[in-house]
From TrEMBL:
<dbReference type="Pfam" id="PF08241">
    <property type="entry name" value="Methyltransf_11"/>
</dbReference>
<protein>
    <submittedName>
        <fullName>Methyltransferase domain-containing protein</fullName>
    </submittedName>
</protein>
<dbReference type="GO" id="GO:0032259">
    <property type="term" value="P:methylation"/>
</dbReference>
<feature type="domain" description="Methyltransferase type 11">
    <location>
        <begin position="45"/>
        <end position="136"/>
    </location>
</feature>
<dbReference type="GO" id="GO:0008757">
    <property type="term" value="F:S-adenosylmethionine-dependent methyltransferase activity"/>
</dbReference>
<keyword id="KW-0489">Methyltransferase</keyword>
<dbReference type="InterPro" id="IPR013216">
    <property type="entry name" value="Methyltransf_11"/>
</dbReference>
<dbReference type="InterPro" id="IPR050508">
    <property type="entry name" value="Methyltransf_Superfamily"/>
</dbReference>
<keyword id="KW-0808">Transferase</keyword>
<dbReference type="InterPro" id="IPR029063">
    <property type="entry name" value="SAM-dependent_MTases_sf"/>
</dbReference>
């Protein structure tokens, strides 16, 4: 099994799209605007998943070359159908089958915290980028303003303290600005900087918010799938009471990712 494999956590492309893909669509353009890349550059998208970031690169950055790497065949098939002209390969973030200094940008969206060996993954991203090129990525602000999941786990902990074993706000401490900058410095990347990438998440009603947690794909849905019906219903009912709801039942939450970038030294 690849050290980058998300088997058992990720794998169902449709379930991922309903749970998180629809929100990642809003973050990718903000990230790419922040990078401000000129056209014609070579890009490597590490952990490309269903191709959301790759699609943004293709549409906004006029890449000269675009290669996506992911361990999930199902995700790669979805990405290839969405981003014609890009190349998608099965691969391991900690051991990329890509040449040294072959890219201008190595990027990653919502992946770093899932890597068993984060240092190796960042070192590989730096290795495949030419001197003066950019390594950049973004991750959800699990402990703070990724409120879709934060609201869920804050309620779940009141019902079932064991839910903390699935809570990325606890289990992914790297997803904060200073730990991200420190990880980039440790990978030998120069002048690392971070930025907040904020979008709203609007739900038509409670069911629109709740049903993606039943899809089994992602940390919180995996946790839900592990529960007996009574515990799951108690969490659902607590969330229904605690979520901010508008006059027509709509729910509006904040969604934040942290972006980080650094330069490969010359």
């Amino acid at each position: 099994m690849s050290s980058f494999s998300r088997t058992g956590l990720w794998g169902a492309a449709d379930a991922y799209e309903r749970y998180m893909g629809r929100w990642s669509r809003g973050v990718a353009p903000l990230f790419l605007d922040w990078l401000g890349a000129p056209p014609g550059r070579a890009w490597a998208d590490i952990g490309c998943g269903t191709g959301e970031l790759s699609l943004g690169i293709a549409r906004r950055c006029a890449p000269g070359r675009l290669v996506g790497i992911d361990p999930s065949r199902a995700f790669l098939d979805r990405a290839a159908s969405r981003v014609p002209g890009a190349e998608f390969r099965e691969g391991d973030a900690a051991l990329l089958d890509l040449p040294d200094a072959g890219f201008d940008y190595a990027v990653s969206g919502l992946v770093l915290n899932f890597l068993p060996d984060k240092a190796a993954g960042l070192a590989e991203m730096a290795r495949v980028v030419r001197p003066g090129g950019t390594v950049a990525l973004y991750v959800w602000d699990y402990a703070g303003h990724m409120q879709i999941m934060r609201r869920f786990f804050d309620a779940a902990r009141l019902v079932d303290p064991a839910s903390s074993a699935y809570d990325d706000g606890i289990n992914a401490p790297i997803c904060r600005p200073e730990p991200l900058r420190e990880a980039f410095r440790a990978a030998g990347l120069a002048a690392p900087e971070t930025t907040a990438l904020d979008i709203p998440a609007a739900f038509a009603g409670f069911d629109d918010y709740w049903e993606p947690f039943l899809g089994g794909t992602g940390s919180a849905p995996k946790y839900c799938a592990s529960l007996d019906e009574s515990t799951r219903d108690r969490i659902r009912d607590m969330l229904r009471e605690r979520l901010p709801t508008g006059p027509d039942g709509e729910i509006l939450l904040a969604v934040r990712a942290w972006g980080v970038r650094g330069t490969v030294p010359g």
